[in-house]
Specification:
Blueprint lengths: L7 E3 L6 E3 L3 E3 L9 E5 H28 L11
Antiparallel strand pairs: 1-2, 3-4
This protein binds zinc ion.
The site of zinc ion has 8 residues, from strand 4 and helix 1.
């Protein structure tokens, strides 16, 4: 059975036309087009990069706040 037109959307990140099934659906009241503007693949990449970035930042800030205050804990006595 051929249903004819498949709804597609152009991803804002990779500029590729993909079927709507390749996009995540946002649940937000009042939003007519509930699908996200970036495809699942690009969204996953974004999330991965964002978490890596956040981890890097938090590690840096942790080091900054601990390097001056807890010098003693670094030297471990046996
Ligand atoms: Zn994409």
């Amino acid at each position: 059975m051929n249903t004819g037109v498949i709804a597609t959307k152009v991803c804002k990140a990779c500029r590729q036309e993909k079927p709507l099934g390749e996009f995540y659906v946002q649940v937000r009241p009042g939003l007519r087009d509930a699908t996200m503007t970036v495809c699942k693949e690009c969204h996953r990449e974004r999330v991965k990069r964002a978490t890596a970035e956040r981890k890097k930042k938090s590690r840096l800030s942790w080091r900054a706040s601990h390097s001056t205050t807890s010098v003693r804990s670094v030297r471990c006595k046996r």
